[in-house]
Amino acid sequence: MNKKKNSNKKIILNYKSKLNNFFLVSMPFMEDHIFNDAVIYIYKHDKDGALGIIINKITNINIEILLNNFKQEEKDKIFANLKSINNFIMFGGIVKTEKSFILYTKKKKNPKTLKIKKKIIFLEYDTFVEKYKHNNLKIENLIITFGYLKWGPGQLEREISNKVAWILMREDEDLLFKTPVKKRYKKLLSTLGIKKIFLSNVYDEI
């Protein structure tokens, strides 16, 4: 007699799951104001933990403050190639909030196929300035943040597996850079076919 397979088997995640380039969407009952209705982009995930930034919480500080480190002609070049940019600096997370960071995409031609490949890059602002001034970077999309988020080894995997904090979704470049900041949370839920009120009702019944 064959044994019936357990369809409710718990999913186990580890650093080999490669969660970089995924979104985390917070469950609506998270009381911490930092993570309430938060959308997080995971840009690094390995055996040492995970790093990410919140992409839908904005400050009232204009990006012009940071771009003053560039000469006018350099700023003109940055804006000339941009397809999307937020005019205000984002609140990226609670780690190193005194520092600013850049998330951007650039065009890269494959000399063999002549195809354009896009790569999402995250750098500390000072590193970005030096890199930009010494290289002819063609930047398409740009997000500037204060701070970022950090999880220790296995911490993020446990939070996701417990299914009480986060919904996991693959990264979408349009949502990451082009969807209006205040609409990103609802847009992600809508993409998943979920309404916030539904999630709230489910939690109330647990």
Q: Could you explain how this protein is built, in words?
A:
With 206 residues, this protein is of the alpha+beta class. It has one domain (19-205): 3-Layer(aba) Sandwich (VC0467-like). 26% of the residues lie in helices and 35% in strands. The protein has helices at 64-67, 72-81, 125-134, 155-161, 173-177, 184-191, 196-205; strands at residues 22-26, 39-46, 49-54, 58-62, 84-85, 88-91, 95-109, 116-124, 139-151, 166-170. Strands 1, 2, 3, 4, 5, 6, 7, 8, 9 and 10 form a ten-stranded mixed beta sheet that branches. Strand 2 and strand 3 (49-54) form a beta hairpin. The protein is globular. It starts with 21 loop residues before the first strand and ends with a helix. The model is unreliable at 1-12 and 197-206 (pLDDT under 50).
Query: For the record, what is the CATH homologous superfamily label?
Result: VC0467-like
Portion in beta strands? 25-35%
| Structural classification | alpha+beta
SSE topology string? EEEEHHEEEEHEHEHHH
By CATH, the topology is VC0467-like
Ends: how far apart?
36 Å
Biggest pleated-sheet summary:
10 strands, mixed
Radius of gyration, whole Å: 19 Å
Mean pLDDT, all residues: 78
CATH architecture verdict:
3-Layer(aba) Sandwich
CATH uppermost class: Alpha Beta
How does the overall form come out from the CA principal axes?
Answer: globular
| Total strands | 10
Note the quaternary state here.
single chain
> How many separate domains make up the residues?
1
The share of residues in helices is 25-40%
- The total of helices stands at 7
> Low-confidence parts lasting 5 or more residues at pLDDT below 50?
1-12, 197-206
